[in-house]
Amino acid sequence: MEKKLFFFDIDGTLTDRSTGQVVPSAKRALELLEEQGHFVSIATGRAHYKCRGLLEELGLENMVCSGGMGVVIKNKLVKNTPLDKKEALAVIHQAEEQGVGVLIATDDSEKVYGKNDLFRQQVGPRQESTEYFIDPTFNVDEAADIFKFYLALPKEQDHLIPEPKNFSKLRFVPEYTMCQHDNKKQGILDVLEYFDRPAQDVVVFGDDVNDLVMFDKRWTSIAMGNAVDELKAQADYVTDRNVDDGIYNACRKFGWI
């Protein structure tokens, strides 16, 4: 059997969106893929530190994370690239000039920093586990790295900050915007380079518009039955819904397990 490199999105692909739990048949499919000698990885926009627990739950050792700029192979973080600092600072200072609250992550952790608490005053706390450090002497220009930052920018004010060139403005809740890398395909390409493997050996699974970037004609792209129409249109194959054993059924169909 030809050995493949598999990359799986998390929400709506490996996990049931209604419960947040890993679909049992998906976990079993991953176990069988590894038993067959395939490379198996998750591919997510989430920061590295947020995914370690899921990696352990799945029994995996590999992942593309941090919007494609983080790569873990055999449980070792081999890459985790911060944002382009010059552009990040330009966006942050533009937001500050317009009175928009900003919180900044300077490392791979749940810590965020700000010189004031304007972000929480404007839109409330972040809707995820966060450790806040508010210090009037904090100077983002002196930070060694910027991994991501958050803008108190409601959807109706999104136009106030133009789209960056080297990273993305992402919105998962109406109240605020997150600026981070959003290119999972780059992480996949980094894994191919690491192992010196051809692109045609790659198989990706996804369900939402943020997975479009990793659907590439050089490899096999599979959309879940619950995927958005835009992703299905770009897929080489559309499997069953994730909660209806979509991953397991696709892997059986193609003879990978």
UniProtKB/TrEMBL annotation:
Taxonomy, superkingdom: Bacteria
GO MF: magnesium ion binding; phosphatase activity
GO CC aspect terms: cytosol
Protein name: Cof-like hydrolase
